[in-house]
Fold:
Amino acid sequence: VRSGTTRTSVENAVEAAKRYLLSTQASDGHWVGELEGDTILESEYVLTMHFLGRTGEQRIRKAAEHLRRKQLPTGGWAIYEGGPAEVSSSVKAYFVLKLMGDDPNAPHMARARETILAHGGIEACNSFTRIYLAIFGQCSWDDTPAVPPEIMLLPDNFRFFNIYKMSSWSRGIVVPLSVIWASKPFCPVPDFAAIPELHVPRTEAHV
Structure:
């Protein structure tokens, strides 16, 4: 009975999805949908604009307000609708809001900080986030992954790695990251925007 019930539930879900997709189809056969992403898009946009010296623009204030509105009641930011707090997106959002002048003692910032630290802080962030933070002086380049540009010179028959055997999407990320890693650009932020409070001290293992 349980198997039949499960099969029926799946079939009903598939039929409901089909009906919805057909209801949104245009008369000439195509579909139009809004491309959406998580808040790292707004966070990285603001950081990029700061790098370019353009944080005074109105759209930057709008992006910061969007981050405030998307904050979870528990304090962090999710990477998909209805999801839990995720440490990398939360660190970026917190950093951007400090950069935009939010008081770190304000309730929404205190909740965010507590959630970030509970999830491991900056040390638990993914590679992309740590690269962003290194550019703005909030973590060491020693804590970012090494992507040396010399990998472009490896021959086609090198058995362990070949840039041209990657997908074009991956190459479009790896190549710029290799340039960034080699040049290690730096863009300062005001002292009030620094986020040393998001570091979780490493504990040394004792034998």
